[in-house]
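Hello,

Our lab assistant flagged a job as stuck in the queue for most of the afternoon. It eventually completed. Since we weren't sure the result was trustworthy after the delay, we are filing this so someone can double-check. Below is the sequence as submitted and the structure that was eventually returned. Let us know if re-running is recommended.
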Amino acid sequence: MQKRALAEKAARKRMLATVDSAKALRKAIARNLATRERLRAQRQAALQEKLKSGLAGQRIGKHVVPEGEIDVQLGEELSESLRGLKPEGNLFRDRFLNMQQRALIEPHAPNPAKKPRRKTKEYEKHSYKRFDRGF
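-- returned structure --
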């Protein structure tokens, strides 16, 4: 009887200790969740900022997304008026690089054009040329 009473008293004491620490645990969990949420929001904001600037210079897969090149005309190439100004650059290349930077198409290394192979030369042997002999 006494052992049972001591066991119940010990169990009650443990339960009261856990009940008292429940508020402290709840506060600690709330602080932990708040810090996690703040860090997640910071990471999300950093990712959005990175995506605004584009993927230029970043490595995706095997290849690096190329950065856009700025076409500039030198002082002697410039004309006196805007009417005489020559267009500079390649519109197709600019749009292609822009789509790679916006992650609409995957980056890849430029594929150089294949060189045409030379035709093989055919030679006739001298023994084949002696066709005037009669058999």
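-- support follow-up --
The delay was a queue issue, not a problem with the job. The result is valid. The mean pLDDT is 82. The CA atoms of residues 58 and 64 lie 6 Å apart.
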